[in-house]
Amino acid sequence: MTTHTQPASGPVPTEADWDLAPNLLDGAKELTLTAEQCDLGYWLSAVAQGTLRGGRAERGHTAATPDHMRADGPLREALVLELGNRSLAESRAVSVLSNYVIGAPGVTEQEFFVTQVVDEARHAMIFRKHLVDLGIPEQDLLGFIARQGEDYTRRVLNPIAEFATTVVRDEGDFIGAVAVFTIVIEGVLAPAAELSERKWTLLDPAASAIARGASIDEIRHLTVGSSIVRDHLKRNPAYRPRLIELIRRGRALWDELPSEEFVLEREELFQEGMFQHTELLDGYEVFPGCKLLETTPKQRYDLAERWTDDMAEARLPYMGIPEAVDLIRTHPR
Asked: Which CATH number characterizes residue 124's domain?
């Protein structure tokens, strides 16, 4: 795996550069970043003055929202659902990760998770602001998001948040909690974010850019979390059974959640909406060799799950737990 190390006062490191950073899947699989590298100084320089420069700090993009995305219809509805639920998920991550800041064993880990809390809060903010771009009234924005995502919050977000919070706060296992967030929560959700960036590229460049910026941050979260777990396991090999147990618990929980139901609901809307813009998408490949117009909602969902498997096959052996790959995989070898 490639390690990028540059001083906070130097040029923007590649992994934080808007134009040069790899996509989420490649970055999460190939890069090595540590909490020591990604300290508060790194964040203030590389992220705040690097990734977010040029007007991206507040809105997450510099693109205009196309008129067709403000028109009532399935395409707009799909994005409104996606942004609303992702905003709720990021806000919940802020609450959960605040416990990681409290439970951090040292200043290095504490500083990193402070930056991650800020990242997740900013993601929630820019998702909300794009809803306003799409015509959702700003005066009742939070209420609208909460009402729309009430079922998603109750059936998906609450169980995940309770699990991660229990591990770090009630069980007092900081490393285990990092593993849960990195492997189970972000590791499973990240590929869907990659898909979002790709499928909105031509239909809503602003939404695609928002997903791009969030993915650049997620590379850092996934790689640093992996390094924290890896280094602890190297120092404390007797921790391995506990780590495997937590991954097993996390995977069992994830299998019980109706995530597919919520993803497919908006993918069905997206499917209907994209066929209203075939002239815009003609020939566009969501990934090499696969035209977006030729995909189905289930195929896109399955693609994101296969990306999850690919990430697990790269990052879990790096962490020192190759036996956990089969626990995370959603598709048999």
From this structure: 1.10.620.20
Candidates 60, 18, 16; CA nearest to 205 is: 60
Q: What is the pLDDT of residues 159-177, one digit of tens each?
A: 999 999 999 999 999 999 9
- Asked whether the beta carbons of 24 and 6 are under 8 A apart, the reply is no
pTM of the predicted protein model? 0.93
Per-residue pLDDT of 7-37, as tens digits, reads: 445 689 999 999 999 988 888 888 999 999 9
Considering the domain boundaries, does residue 224 fall inside one? yes
| Number of structural domains in the chain | 1
Task: Give the model's pLDDT for residue 285.
Answer: 94
Quick one: average pLDDT of 189-194?
78
